[in-house]
Inverse folding.
């Protein structure tokens, strides 16, 4: 795990409803896990490591990286870190199961329903900002050559999947009568995440003139 943080504990507290009494080490661990797992998955290992190195050096290769971090990565990471922190804050594993701390040594059995409701709300925000980050990387991938430099087995390849977007997925520009019908009736169609910004394919009429 890295010791370099893309967002600070102060910013995490500022933009969420996390109480000032929450343990700092707990929040730091949440940030570290969220960026190592979620942000590295979206950026790929090479771009992720490049950004951490630039943060360590306190200098940016160019403004593209600074804008990527400030306008997209930090927004996504903020809510992923909050998402990871909630489990640490609300639930503590003990010999007699999951418990909710009530202050001091006191605790009570956990009610999973309200915990899942809160965590689900935070996850929705994290996925919204992750979607924006993914779309930005796809649109401006030429500005970040590290996106295509993940060649070793242990390196993460950038995840351009459809995990944040529901809908029907077809291969781009491949004729299918079902695809043609879906377009004609106005169904939302995805042509694969990396091609979603391209215009929809067109079809030639197959009707013969008699």
């Amino acid at each position: 795990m890295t010791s370099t943080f893309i967002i600070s504990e102060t910013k995490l507290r500022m933009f969420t409803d996390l109480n000032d009494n929450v343990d700092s080490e707990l929040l730091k661990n949440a940030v570290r896990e969220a960026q190592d797992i979620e942000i590295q998955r979206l950026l790929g290992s090479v771009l992720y490591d490049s950004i951490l190195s630039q943060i360590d050096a306190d200098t940016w290769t160019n403004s593209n990286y600074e804008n990527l971090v400030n306008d997209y990565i930090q927004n996504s990471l903020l809510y992923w870190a909050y998402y990871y922190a909630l489990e640490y804050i609300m639930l503590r594993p003990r010999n007699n199961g999951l418990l909710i701390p009530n202050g001091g040594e006191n605790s009570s059995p956990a009610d999973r329903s309200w915990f899942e409701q809160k965590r689900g709300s935070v996850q929705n925000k994290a996925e919204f900002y992750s979607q924006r980050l993914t779309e930005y990387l796809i649109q401006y991938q030429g500005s970040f050559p590290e996106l295509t430099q993940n060649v070793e087995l242990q390196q993460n390849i950038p995840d351009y999947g459809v995990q944040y977007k529901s809908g029907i997925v077809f291969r781009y520009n491949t004729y299918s009568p079902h695809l043609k019908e879906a377009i004609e009736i106005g169904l939302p169609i995805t042509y694969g995440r990396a091609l979603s910004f391209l215009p929809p394919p067109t079809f030639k009429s197959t009707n013969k003139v008699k």
Notes: The mean pLDDT is 77. Residues 4 and 53 are 8 Å apart (CA to CA).
